[in-house]
Structure of Agmatinase:
Amino acid sequence: MRFDEAYSGNVFIKSHPNFEESEAVIYGMPMDWTVSYRPGSRFGPARIREVSIGLEEYSAYLNRELEEVKYFDAGDIPLPFGNPQRSLDIIEDFIHKLLAEDKFPLGMGGEHLVSWPVMKAVAKKYPDLAIIHMDAHTDLREEYEGEPLSHSTPIRKIAEHIGPKNVYSFGIRSGMKEEFQWAKENGMHISKFEVLEPLKEILPTLAGRPVYVTIDIDVLDPAHAPGTGTVDAGGITSKELLASIHAIAQSDINVVGCDLVEVAPIYDISEQTANTASKLIREMILGWVQKRK
Amino acid sequence: MRFDEAYSGNVFIKSHPNFEESEAVIYGMPMDWTVSYRPGSRFGPARIREVSIGLEEYSAYLNRELEEVKYFDAGDIPLPFGNPQRSLDIIEDFIHKLLAEDKFPLGMGGEHLVSWPVMKAVAKKYPDLAIIHMDAHTDLREEYEGEPLSHSTPIRKIAEHIGPKNVYSFGIRSGMKEEFQWAKENGMHISKFEVLEPLKEILPTLAGRPVYVTIDIDVLDPAHAPGTGTVDAGGITSKELLASIHAIAQSDINVVGCDLVEVAPIYDISEQTANTASKLIREMILGWVQKRK
Amino acid sequence: MRFDEAYSGNVFIKSHPNFEESEAVIYGMPMDWTVSYRPGSRFGPARIREVSIGLEEYSAYLNRELEEVKYFDAGDIPLPFGNPQRSLDIIEDFIHKLLAEDKFPLGMGGEHLVSWPVMKAVAKKYPDLAIIHMDAHTDLREEYEGEPLSHSTPIRKIAEHIGPKNVYSFGIRSGMKEEFQWAKENGMHISKFEVLEPLKEILPTLAGRPVYVTIDIDVLDPAHAPGTGTVDAGGITSKELLASIHAIAQSDINVVGCDLVEVAPIYDISEQTANTASKLIREMILGWVQKRK
Amino acid sequence: MRFDEAYSGNVFIKSHPNFEESEAVIYGMPMDWTVSYRPGSRFGPARIREVSIGLEEYSAYLNRELEEVKYFDAGDIPLPFGNPQRSLDIIEDFIHKLLAEDKFPLGMGGEHLVSWPVMKAVAKKYPDLAIIHMDAHTDLREEYEGEPLSHSTPIRKIAEHIGPKNVYSFGIRSGMKEEFQWAKENGMHISKFEVLEPLKEILPTLAGRPVYVTIDIDVLDPAHAPGTGTVDAGGITSKELLASIHAIAQSDINVVGCDLVEVAPIYDISEQTANTASKLIREMILGWVQKRK
Amino acid sequence: MRFDEAYSGNVFIKSHPNFEESEAVIYGMPMDWTVSYRPGSRFGPARIREVSIGLEEYSAYLNRELEEVKYFDAGDIPLPFGNPQRSLDIIEDFIHKLLAEDKFPLGMGGEHLVSWPVMKAVAKKYPDLAIIHMDAHTDLREEYEGEPLSHSTPIRKIAEHIGPKNVYSFGIRSGMKEEFQWAKENGMHISKFEVLEPLKEILPTLAGRPVYVTIDIDVLDPAHAPGTGTVDAGGITSKELLASIHAIAQSDINVVGCDLVEVAPIYDISEQTANTASKLIREMILGWVQKRK
Amino acid sequence: MRFDEAYSGNVFIKSHPNFEESEAVIYGMPMDWTVSYRPGSRFGPARIREVSIGLEEYSAYLNRELEEVKYFDAGDIPLPFGNPQRSLDIIEDFIHKLLAEDKFPLGMGGEHLVSWPVMKAVAKKYPDLAIIHMDAHTDLREEYEGEPLSHSTPIRKIAEHIGPKNVYSFGIRSGMKEEFQWAKENGMHISKFEVLEPLKEILPTLAGRPVYVTIDIDVLDPAHAPGTGTVDAGGITSKELLASIHAIAQSDINVVGCDLVEVAPIYDISEQTANTASKLIREMILGWVQKRK
């Protein structure tokens, strides 16, 4: 009987109630206003939390339990509907505060553009930052129909910010010809179609470096993630994505933050996408949080 | 930025954070294991809270705002899956404690059987209790296929407990012939098909009495509440149900508790049923809570 | 334990197991191949039977129980996919046999064209036959894009067969200008938009006559019947349709057969359309079968 | 602006292929980036056009056929995702051009904010303009969480632009207390809950005046329009909304433009909302276009 | 024309009408009242039968046709809603009777707990019984939130009943740490993540032994079985599960009964889960029934 | 036949507005009236076009862009509902005209029977024609329940027309025993279950020959194509189907026409099936059109 305090209704399963004592912080970035196709990812974080109640607290992959890691769920960052610039500023400010408190940021989108201010803030703290990016799409546009703030641009922005050679994209199967050319000409790594095998090759080269990992759920085939804005055939399986998370966990890189974006629940009656996202986040917590040095 | 305390994620909009200071308490009873047709109402309370974020805090009907009433959201009562008796005992115990603290109980189902232990507890505190029951179904069975604990029995149980002449059912359009006969022979009131007009006739006869109001969302026509276990054509409109709530608010009866049950979100992609339920609860809070003497 | 005979899985609730002893026969006509908009009504009869398990066996409207009437469920008539003419011939042959055994035919569609061979067969037995037709659409076309066998034509066909002045349409809100003109010029009755009130005026004029009643579920507003091929706003409520069935039950006409068509389950996740159809059929059984003289 | 040739894409049924010869122009405004609850109305116009193929071309209400009116479908106005100000500017520019060619503008939303630039442009041409507004919500906020460009503000903006006493809202059932007070204090008309009866009283007072009519589909009860961003119980029926359109058609006001907004197809598997919208638009074309003087 | 007997509406395709002559018996166990997450599997058996009409009667894998095996469909065992103990007793009694008649039991769930009384009854007849278990979950809990009768416990119960070393689980990817430990400490076999390869290794060690095979549909990845209570990413493909069924068919073990559980149709609009289940059952019939000695 | 001007309706992304200048012609064949299970593929072509707006115009697989190929979208061929023979005649006539203009035909179904008149017309122009057929089903029946025009017969028809040894089926996992026998006895090639590997073996044997490729979307596993009439477990992945298209593109065969059939959007809320189909068509355009000599 919870009579002594407000009901803590919808937090990611096993979240720690105390911010100070927590090593990591989970937060939602419920923005979807620049997407060019199907909106709805603003509801991703809330649904991922809701279905996390069905998760086992133990990972049979990593042989660890959620109670071994302290993470605080800060809820969804309130963002002004329809104002991308102000939204990104609020997110960046939020992340600066998290990093000032030395917390591991674990974000849930929302559209992929929300990763841009997070990566920028993380790059300020870790000048030697590298980015691992798993996605169906390049996200390397300079602008979309005249708008520089678009869900198609975040990787271009961070690549220009920290240098394209520090950005590693995996699983890419869609983009404009110019985007692939830009990457090639600027020394950015793109592994087309596959994730696990090329990732295993790249990881040793990043040993010891601080790395931020950003995962767009649509790197999965639509069979495994129908609930997303842009479904694109020919993706990887959830088994492969899990294995990729584990490969990072077992590598010598220093994960300093991460996010999982673009879960749009309305397109998936079965809620498999949100359930899968909650499982991926469990593995990210168990495998990555304590890698940070 | 909520860094100082755990994120209070999914509570009914504008819930008060402090139990002691609150006049009313909202709680979920996520049980659906005795239903004979379609299960799923266990997820009703969580979804009603989630969509309540879309509600206006002001009622244009009652000219009142939610901040005028203090109510605490106690979350869902944890109930043991598949064990009706233990579940009902836990609910009854919960309500006794609420009443001991002089709180107004406002419950969300779950299947209709959850109302039985609540009404029993309320009847102990208010010996002169009357019941107002809005529903498509009589719910007057003694048992269902041999089970005395069934979603088809709660009104029979409370009628036998406080006397059938103290129970008033409205909007009933389905039941067994024997149920209607039992009601007739035992002096229980049943208004078939209609709610608002017969209710207006009955209310003056209950003036000054403590009354518990139990509403099965399926009193609404399936057009207005597709997300419920048993959809039954020929029901009332949501406009009529709102007017019925307002008629009670304007009457001289003393509402001492209430519930809204049987919202099963999975059958309603549009979520209109949960949204409607959240609006009904707002009107119940604004119209009924402070009637209690 | 049903070890002695095959499991009778999906029949309309309380169907009688014996054909000879039954007064009425329920049958499905799972054809949807001439529809011009959304197909899917071929699955209507099976789904109506399936959800009928959730029906009360007692009608609180008519104060009768299903066990008071003996009706046999003959299943779905096997029809050759994509061959309208052969399908209609098979249906007509089926009805002739039913009528030869003096059974009351109660059909479930399927698209509305299936009513044409049934009405033709019934008209052969009852030369003085009148038709009561409830529908959103006139269905008075001579052909549809060159095809004389179309779901838009059945009322035209029967009107030409038994004389337009013997056909009474109610609730009509859509059709071609030419269809309304044809009806007017040929003395056929059309009540636009409304059913109950005009029906009450017509019924006394048909006293004593044999009448076949054909109901397209889309006479209901889409709010009440989203699961149909052609949803058309501005229809009647299920409360009004139930009252119309009861008005016929209490009239002096001689109902000699009836059908309910165009339930297409796939467009209605809540299954309210199929549930409503099963309730309507219960009322048709209880109110109409024994009117036959 | 595709004024010189037929739009190559999905068009509303019976659209005229030639812009110059057309009296009215239909266009979509596929913007949903400022909504505070559920997005998705960007796909409304395309789906309304798609399902219009299922419409009868004749109105049994008005006894007119679509071929009696020439209207051109200009397609969806290309709008920059996530940039409300630029989107509104583009819309306003589009409308100025339409009005310069003396076309009757008939817009499809999109969120309600798109009506603001349209009404502003129309007010420039018709200084004596009045607004008839049918909606569940007041839409009278000055800003929403700090954003002056929000789907909650369009009626406030036009009311301040042309004077609150020239704005007439009907069917309103939700809003902030302050919004209702602002309307009252400033002489703006609000009819709560009802549309048809108060509209019939107001229409004669507007005789001869140019009037723009803006309809938010959520003025309908969720039973009749589940496919919209904010479902709000207690609304009117589609029958009542059709009758309201016809009341305007038969009045002496001079309709000079109109829109229908907030159809969000994803929340409505049955597509009844888009089908209803297409029927409403047919009636608006047949009843209103030629009223313009 | 089926005039001479009741319509045998919803049986598994090609079921034999005579119990005595049949070698195997198919039956449904429509219970879902102890599930801790999403209910709905009570409707699994009915939907599997319904969609089996779409199956080819020939297996291109096994080169056999359904008419080569006689199996009787006994329908769903009537179970008392909300009473797990009585339900399990009824199931156990049913199986004892089947086994007394020397029938091969082929059950459809329903939640996984229904397998417990079946396995217990089969173990009584075959003292040397081994269990092959394919599932995403260990199902090895002693109790769930205080309830010993839970969908999380059936494998623990049978393991304790026949000895853990006689139980072989495959495809397991979720469970509590304690469950995996219990298995390890007690000599029970668990193959994590994979099914086909470890199964091929185990099968020869079981040669000649009587084996009961219980398959939880969620051993499949959610991509292949979205319609189940607990969707858990990282599962196997339907191709792999089919191959696993065939590996058993070609082995030297003696399959003496089997079940397929946890199909919950409401979460899968496409009905692929029920269709897949019906195909799996066809292969189980063709590959396993006649292996029994 | 709208050959003289751009189709006024929804077109496939980047379609060329001029028929004469185009090398290929895309067209829909919206027929589904002979299907024996679930209808709805009549809406496949329209939905594929609609979602094609979300496609990248560049193929990262083939390193080509859509603007490198000129293709005209002729819209859907108007077909008479419910009349298979007339529909097939209209299609055949349409194809003869296309071929007379030396256009590459790229058709979208619709049920698979629509491929029969196309293949017949193509065979007339290319007497040495071979067929590559990817499907879950043999489609080799002579008739279905007495109907020679059935979605189960098109491959049989073309095999008899051009000789069974010229027909190569891949991915087949369902059919009647007799169909497999007929293929074997008549020298027709069937690769069961797999596509890519056997295709790579066959392609060199067809070098230089004119080949028509017909793909039933259900060759994909239901996980990858839930939106189709007959979902059949055990299929290939979209990754494998893409690779098969690319294998053909890189081979020495001469593709002279192709189609993709059986997309039925209503069964797939996520629209992944239509999105996948649009991507497959992009690859077919980029990889196959200019192979024609």
Q: What stands out?
A: The two ends of chain E are 40 Å apart (CA to CA). DSSP finds eight helices and ten strands in chain E. Chain E touches chain A through 27 residues (CB under 8 Å). Confidence is low (pLDDT under 50) at residues 1-8 of chain E.
